[in-house]
Amino acid sequence: VAPAKPQPAAFTGSIADELSGAQSWDEVRSILRGKTIVFFDYETTGFPDKKTGDKSSNQPVQLGAVKVVDGQIVDRFNLFMNPEEPLGGWSRDNLKGADGTPLTDEQLATAMDKGEAHQQFIAWAGQDVILAAHNAPFDLGVMNETLGKKGLEYAPTGRVIDTLKLAQTVIASKKAAAHHVNKDQIKTGDPSGPDTHRLGDLASHFGVELGDGLHTAD
Questions:
Q1: pLDDT digits (tens, 9 = 90+) for 94-119
Q2: What is the arithmetic mean of pLDDT over 17-39?
Q3: Which of 24, 46, 100, 179: CA 20 to 30 A from 54?
Q4: CA distance 63 to 193
Q5: Predicted model pTM
Q6: How far is it, in rounded angstroms, from Cα 193 to Cα 206?
Q7: What b/e string do you get for 155-176 counting C-beta neighbours within 10 Å, with b at 16 or more?
Q8: From CA 33, how far away is CA 116, in angstroms rounded?
């Protein structure tokens, strides 16, 4: 059973205040009812790597998002943009375009400007929403750096849910409850949850078919 009271680390901003008094996940669902949650994800050029000589500075390549209300997807967003630097080796080997073929620097050089892409995202998402991302500090970092460079601002009223922290909290407690042990004593290989909280492992554990889409933002 998941912990009776949500852990605040997964929630920041006004949504954390709204959920602070919730004593159960049923209460959380009730508070979230009718609210729009925008789940978003970036693919980027990657980080610098001395071994390969990559000088990438983690610039956005793709921004994908879905609007969710009461557990149902109501709208989708997906744009590629010009990162203004070459893809790093990992990104060149793994990222794919809308047609499923590998992305190239040549393709991205003709994509829309990062500022225009984020203006479109802000207009689509709106202000009265809660953002959600898996390892939110990473995606928020990409977003905020880009917004700053392009002279844009975006501060949605609900702020952020970090599904990585949420998964860590819920699954660790579920494992602990299943084995009647402290969560720090849980060993890997436990069938009540995945061994890691990476998105691909969580998707596999919960039966979500991603196919070749694990490394595409949408």
A1: 999 988 899 999 999 999 999 999 99
A2: 92
A3: 100
A4: 29
A5: 0.85
A6: 9
A7: ebebbbbbbbbbbbbbbbbbbb
A8: 32
